[in-house]
Design a protein that fits this description.
The complex is a heterodimer of chains A (about 140) and B (about 325).
Chain A (H helix, E strand, L loop, with lengths): L8 E6 L3 H10 L8 E6 L7 H9 L4 E6 L10 H18 L7 E5 L5 H18 L13
Parallel strand pairs in A: 1-2, 1-3, 3-4
Helix pairs in contact in A: 1-4
Chain B lengths: L3 H13 L3 E9 L6 E6 L8 E2 L10 H5 L15 E6 L1 H12 L8 E5 L8 H7 L8 E4 L3 E6 L2 E6 H4 L2 H4 L11 E2 L13 H7 L3 H13 L6 H5 L24 H14 L9 H5 L6 H16 L27
Parallel strand pairs in B: 1-4, 4-5, 5-9
Antiparallel strand pairs in B: 1-2, 1-3, 6-7, 7-8
Helix pairs in contact in B: 10-12
């Protein structure tokens, strides 16, 4: 058993800003924690709240949803809808007893490779502090 | 006072109209304090209608539950209206269905019944255990009068009213084509005290509270089926591909189910309390729904089911919505 707990973080990145931002961080050879599992979606507004619940069920210790800054959405308004949706989902998850640091949201544009690094650092740190997620993890996966 | 004879008269007139298919109201149940939904198709059937503190069903559910059969070729679809008796909370369900275009305004004829609170059957049956004879009830002055076989018993309202009625802010129907009875003065106010109590604990305390409740869930889906706002023809919980919620009954899947169900009602729940009433294992489902109602009210100053002209919460946005938690 290693001494330190390494969390599993699932990140839903929008194709047009955050994914490009993460790509920029990569091509700029920025170092950031390797705990992230990136899932590319076309828009943060495409992320169904059930994705987040399902990620937590299937082994994630933290979830990040990241999209374009408000007003910059490639589809004009997708991230505005996402913002309302995930503000409410975050409240609901905390209410049933998920630690506050587990679910995060961020706005990262395609040019913000440096911000991406900070966001990943913070999200990983929060998930690490919260510890392994066990509230409603699925016992058997893929059965 | 409630004049049931007048209600029957209104029902007879309504059902006799050419543009009304049937009327949905309440009737005495088979035993005890039970009541049941009553579908009035002919003027004679109106004789069984009642309206009393025992009429806790939200009949707005039946507007969307009805099966839409294909119309045979050469025939016109039945465009007649469904007449519906609504209390204050039920009328909000109708309004919310109109907002979401789940039903059309032309397809429903709403008869508003101002309501002074309905009873919680569990509280009543604890007070009068083992009652098998049919019992009726009426509203008294700050009390509810039960007509038991061995005489009338008057009980203070606070002791038997359903939780949602104690904090009710909309006892009068917000939408009606026809009003039956006098308007009722608003008695309640809602400060979400039950939600705040639970919020005050630590995440571990909250989870241990919900874990116990969710573990007892047997996934009968009654709460979904009875909900007037749950009317998707293709429910995400029934889907097998993708299957977001596994069918196995365990705490993890039950939690996912309850989160999905509650979240699908975010900004839509009109707090009629039907989910909690029908739950066979007494899960405080309204505590989940009311948490979201509270957040919606605080963050977006929005309440569902009030104005038929408004837009659904999650299908609209404001550029200056709060985003204090976003990195």
């Amino acid at each position: 058993m290693s001494a330190e707990f390494e969390p599993n973080v699932v990140a839903f990145l929008c194709n047009w800003c955050s994914y490009a931002g993460a790509d920029l961080a990569g091509t700029s050879r920025t170092h950031y924690p390797p705990n992230l599992n990136v899932i590319r979606v076309m828009c943060s507004g495409r992320v169904n709240p059930l994705f987040v619940v399902n990620a937590l069920q299937q082994g994630a210790d933290g979830v990040l949803v990241s999209g374009c800054h408000p007003g910059d959405c490639h589809y004009m308004e997708g991230n505005f809808y996402a913002r309302r949706r995930f503000t409410l989902l975050r409240e609901l998850l905390e209410y049933v007893g998920v630690e506050p640091g587990r679910f995060n949201m961020s706005w990262v544009s395609a040019s913000e490779g440096a911000k991406w690094k900070d966001v990943v650092g913070e999200v990983t740190q929060k998930a690490k502090e919260a510890g392994p997620f066990k509230q409603f993890r699925r016992d058997k996966i893929n059965w | 006072m409630v004049d049931v004879e007048k209600l029957k008269e209104i029902a007879r007139e309504t059902v006799s109209r050419d543009d009304v298919k049937y009327l949905i109201g309440w009737r005495q149940g088979t035993y005890g304090f039970r009541t049941a939904p009553h579908f009035v198709g002919t003027p004679e059937e109106a004789d069984n209608l009642i309206f009393s503190p025992l009429c806790s069903h939200n009949l707005a559910t039946y507007l969307t539950l009805v099966e839409k059969l294909p119309v045979p070729r050469g025939q016109d679809p039945d465009s007649r209206k469904v007449a519906l008796l609504v209390k204050g909370c039920d009328s909000r369900a109708v309004v919310q269905q109109l907002i979401e275009q789940g039903i059309g305004r032309d397809s429903v004829f709403v008869i508003g019944c101002p309501c002074r609170g309905v009873v919680d059957l569990k509280k009543v049956e604890a007070k009068f255990p083992g009652m098998r004879e049919k019992v009726s009830a009426t509203w008294g002055n700050g009390t509810i009068i039960f007509n038991l076989p061995n005489g009338n018993v008057e009980v203070p309202r606070q002791e038997v009213l359903a939780g949602k009625c104690l904090t009710c802010r909309y006892p009068n129907p917000l939408l009606s084509d026809l009003n039956f009875g006098e308007e009722v003065a608003v008695w309640g106010s809602d400060d979400y005290a039950d939600v705040k109590n639970l919020e005050a604990g630590s995440p571990q305390e909250r989870w241990s509270f919900w874990e116990e409740k969710f573990a007892s869930c047997m996934r009968c889906y009654s709460c979904r089926n009875v909900c007037p706002m749950c009317y998707c023809e293709d429910c995400v919980l029934d889907r097998l591909n993708p299957q977001w919620v596994m069918r196995s009954v365990n705490t993890a899947e039950n939690t996912a189910f309850h989160l999905a169900r509650a979240f699908h009602l975010a900004g839509r729940c009109i707090e009629c309390g039907e989910c909690e009433r029908v739950c066979p294992v007494d899960i405080p489902i309204m505590k989940l729904n009311r948490k979201l109602s509270k957040e919606v009210r605080e963050k977006y100053a929005f309440e569902p089911g009030l104005d038929p002209e408004s837009k659904p919460l999650q299908a609209s946005y404001r550029p200056d919505d709060k985003e204090d938690f976003i990195l």
